[in-house]
Amino acid sequence: MPFCKRGDVRIRYEEIGSGFPLLVTPGGGLNSRVSNWPTAVFNAMEEFKHDFRCITMDQRNANGGDSAGPVPAENAWGAFADDQLGLMDHLGIREFFYMGYCIGGCFAGKLLQRAPHRVVAAVFCQTVGHRPEDPDVMVRHSQQNWLADFRARRPEVSTETIEKYLHSLWRVQPDFLYSVPREFMSNCRTPILVLPDDTPSHPLPTSIDVASLAPNAEITVFPWREPPELKARTINRVRTFLKSHIPKLSVAQSLAPS
Questions:
Q1: Across all residues in the chain, what is the average pLDDT?
Q2: Residue 196 in contact with residue 124, Cβ under 8 Å?
Q3: Which domain holds residue 132?
Q4: How many domains does one find in the chain?
Q5: Residue 257: pLDDT above 80?
Q6: Whether pLDDT at 173 is above 80
Q7: 131, part of any domain
Q8: Does residue 210 sit within a domain?
């Protein structure tokens, strides 16, 4: 289990395969961690290990993971981006693909905003998004699935800090992707592929909005998980999409460890 340490943040990561780098983060909300891959809609690390240098990580403070750091009371999406970009720096990677499941759609938005010259292409898989008819769905999800176990592990973190953290994530920008505004996405020229979903925390309108607003976005059919043949074609579409955007001269490959 390799780790990347940056100040008071420690990130556990794994990698497999070779080729152009693909940073891929599993779903699970605030419990996004490497051990979630076996239950993902499909395991990107296994699917793409023969095509790319696949890198994944436990997100900061995910229960059941081994990454840890301060709980950011402000700019929480920026803190996640710092961790993800810091890991790429640690690995000597400049340019990379990013694929985010669930909460990873919000991560993708912030990475595209923060590092537009580093994220060569992005895939949004079943992205989290705001539901106007149920504006606190993600606050409840975090409270029900993350908070109790986190408090048990980190009793020194105050209630006030946790409340500010959840506010920064889900209430500062109660629209769309939470992490970036629609105006940013409408001007984001990075190639994007969207794999939609429609659950309480993965609203279909958010996936459609990403695909509609971003000038160079594509979207798959929906639903795509069944039958198995359609799911397999969708996975292959991700592979084809990413391969079509590999830079001819990869800065990332020249910096990667030999």
A1: 95
A2: no
A3: 7-255
A4: 1
A5: no
A6: yes
A7: yes
A8: yes
